[in-house]
Amino acid sequence: MNSGPVICCPIRLYAGNYEILRDVAKVAFGPSLPLVSGRDLIGPKANCIAVFGKGWGKELRLPNRGARGGYYVDWILAHLGSDGSLVDFVAVEVQSIDTTGNYRHERETHLREETFAGKSSAGFNWENVNKRILPQLIYKGHVLRQEPLCQKGLFFVCPAPVYHKIGERLGAGLRPYPIQPGSLTMLWYDIGPVVNAGEQRKLVAAGQFTTTIDQVALAFTAPSNLPPAKVYEMAIRASLNLP
Known about the structure:
By secondary structure, the protein is of the alpha/beta class. The protein has one domain (10-240). The protein has 6 helices and 11 strands. It has helices at 15-29, 104-111, 126-145, 160-170, 213-221, 231-240; strands spanning 35-37, 48-53, 61-63, 70-72, 75-80, 86-94, 99-100, 123-124, 154-159, 183-191, 203-212. A 7-stranded mixed beta sheet has the order 1-2-5-6-9-10-11, with helices on both faces. A two-stranded antiparallel ribbon has the order 3-4. A hairpin with a 5-residue loop joins strand 5 (75-80) and strand 6. Helix 3 (126-145) crosses helix 4 (160-170) and helix 3 crosses helix 5 (213-221). The longest helix is centred in the middle third of the chain and has 20 residues, at 126-145.
């Protein structure tokens, strides 16, 4: 897959002083509410969004049924009302792209402003994203659906090529739904064009789509997006040079 530039560092998705969190807050709670670090809130604070996540406040664990373990969600945005009470909240997962191989030599060559002449072993591990993030989204989405104050569901932020690759994995059958308990809202981003040489390219919102966790779970397990029959047999025959 030649997708052009792909954001592989999750920190790159936090450009503009965590602009993606403001985008999620606007979709979930409307404009104008300020984001405040959850760790800095001492006592109630009115009309704001308390943020829990790396650098803003500790990540909040989603517990398993047992006493140990459990998933973390990357971010919790908690809406505090005019009297400082908890009105509602949403959870946000952020995923970039996993890599394979080693790109150290390419990086060192680039920093020396030279042209890399070797053969690269680095690449993108698209399938690992599908295998790892989709089951987590389904599990976390079902956990959050039980929360009376989680009225807007789960949000998922990723680079545009990752969103499109997940779409290929799930097939074209996902139905759009309004934001609701148990919904999954996906926001995907790209990097903008080069404006001035040497300047960092801006992060650009590229799209938004809302479906439900049930739709994702059905698509993930459905046999509607399989490769052709006998692909394993053909691979074995080709490897053994058999007709």
